[in-house]
Amino acid sequence: MDDKYDCIVLGTGLKECIISGLMSVERKKVLHMDRNDFYGGESASLTLDQLFQRFTDGQKPPESLGSSRDYQIDLIPKFIMANGALVNMLVFTGVNRYLEFKKVDGSFVMRGGKVYKVPATDVEALKSSLMGFFQKRKCKNFFAFAQNYDDADPSTHKGFNIDETPIKDIFEYYGLDDNTVEFIGHAVALNKDDSYLTRPARETFDRMKLYADSLARYGSSPYLYPLYGLGELPQGFARLSAIYGGTYMLQKPIEEVVYNDEGRVCGVKSEGEVAACDFVVGDPSYFPDKVRQTGSVVRCICILNHPIPSTDNAESCQIIVPQRQAGRNSDIYISCVSYAHNVAAPGKWIVLVSTTVETDNPLKELEPGFALLGEIEARFPSKDGVFITTSYDATTHFETSCDDVFKVYRAITGHDIDFDNPPRPDQDDE
Length: 430
Known about the structure:
- This protein is α/β, with parallel strands linked by helices.
- It has three domains: 4-56 and 230-292 and 386-413, FAD/NAD(P)-binding domain, CATH 3.50.50.60; 80-106 and 294-383, Guanine Nucleotide Dissociation Inhibitor, domain 2 (2-Layer Sandwich); 119-218, Guanine Nucleotide Dissociation Inhibitor, domain 1 (Orthogonal Bundle).
- The chain is 29% helix and 22% strand.
- Strands 1, 2, 10, 11, 12, 13 and 19 form a seven-stranded mixed beta sheet that branches. The protein has a seven-stranded mixed beta sheet with strand order 8-7-15-16-17-14-18. The protein has a three-stranded antiparallel beta sheet with strand order 5-9-6.
- A hairpin with a 2-residue loop joins strand 12 (265-270) and strand 13 (273-282).
- The radius of gyration is 23 Å and the shape is globular.
- This is Rab GDP dissociation inhibitor.
- Belongs to the Rab GDI family.
């Protein structure tokens, strides 16, 4: 490792692999290392044997679960917004060429212990059983206002300045009750808690637009999911980096991040050798002296032999349990994929339930989510400059992860990603 690198990336989680690929596209000399012998880091996809080895002290999976090689179980499963930032990056970089995707069947929300499909447009609002007759009309009018709001046309503003007016004031103007506000704010705008209510309305409008635009691309759901699991994503961006000259080293122990006399990073030490560099990017686990815990996420992987009840036999779906429904300060998220996505044995569903930890009994906090699943065959609970990516939050989509990538990219390069000018490799990868 005598060469000098522009950038050394530590860890092969999705965010680190995206950054590695983008830096390589910028024609920076990139070295990418990981202490593990597999891609994905904390967001890896595991076989059934690997899952049992990780969570059960080496117990063997029961034969009833099927063949280990039929499984690719995400440790931190998230869905991709069909019109969101990750899709933009996949298309911009051409990584979408290496992957196949399947539409997620539906998005649902819990109300009073029951599961309902999430309405995302004024037309769907009129058909939804989530609301009574009068609330449907009011919700339809609110959706129409949000969809038709045009900065350049004051006639669409109804006297509101959405950059200053809190969204709660607009909810009140349209007469939306607490239940209607709940599903709009948490299941459509995808806020994690109620703090958004006092922030400017544009934030909620932008989130609603992302949901509606994503829904419009494929119909019944705004989400996509890659066949063979999320582990395919970091490998796709690693391939992009390699096309542009990036170097990858797996199963490479990281002994030390090296700094010069001025306190600036200058290299990474591994197996007694130092690879010199201008800057380092890595996940938090490589920088224990530079990060602090600001919260915890509890996740539980469940294997079912049936679809989640009340989801119309969906092969895949998302369910959000809003904080108020669970008597909590933050939402509970449920994501479900299945054998239809080549991540489980035939007739099996993989469900992950997650939330932000609020008590000293994290697993108990997931019980409102478990109650929606029916019989569970197996359960695996777990917890969750130098430019350091943040840990993955409890949400079931990639928008917050992409925001983190954008911040790191901007900090390193001094500019935003120009999505109007996608990269062109010197020669196509065959």
